[in-house]
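Sample 1 of the test manifest.
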Amino acid sequence: MKMECKHVWEQISGYLDTELDADMLAAVEKHLETCEVCSAILDSTRNILVLTADERTYELPVGYGKRLRERLIGVIGANG
Amino acid sequence: MKAAAATNERALIARVIGGEKELFLDLIRPYERLVYVTIFAILKNETEAEDGAQETMISAYRNLKSFRGEAKFSTWLVTIAMNEARKRLRKAKTAAEDSLDEPREESEGDYTPAVLTDWREIPLAALERKELKEKLREAVGMLSEKYREVFVLRDIEELNQEETAVALGINVALVKVRLHRARMMLQKLLVPYLKNGVPFGAQAKPARGGFFRRWLQ
């Protein structure tokens, strides 16, 4: 199966989630071997997801856990 | 979650319901971050997110008896957190803003990713940059709500497709469609920032997070 770039783009998310079936995966990989553009798009998307999953991208405010627990203790106590 | 930890969690829930109320703090401890970040990523406001996280946990405490255990406890909590975030977002949003930027679902696949052929040369050092993280948070905030919700749960919180579907009350197929769309929009929004000022050949220490690990293998 020979693929055009725009069809490869439609598979990027599925590719990153390792969800493509064997035929589709083979076709996408074959395309990626020779297509710099699609490879770059794939790599950039993948790296954005790496950044997203990095815990330092979304940080907790200082004292958040303490304030949360204090509030809960208040509620739990107030409910008897 | 490992089976033993899940069993432990069930036992903890039973004990809280049984009257050992203070154990609720232990029960939710592993999810304090999950709840806050979920709400923050949707609302983009620290004070609102912290308040929302507190309300979520209070609601979870008050409704713990209604947790039946069909879903994972974490998914149940995320569902409450997401509802809390939605409620606050509605309150903050004007009707005018609401109508902006709503790509139609049927246009799925009809987009052009940003092309940047030298991207692959950019080392992970780029991902360590603080500004880039800021840009990412901004870009996530620019997604319209339905895409942002799916992205937050799948790629920030790393829930699986089924858990995400349950938490959002949509089907798995729609989770996939929206996630793909969200990722492509982010790719487009972020590529310009990824391009600039990156020293070639620099090495970065590995970031944490499941995606990274998956991709290093």
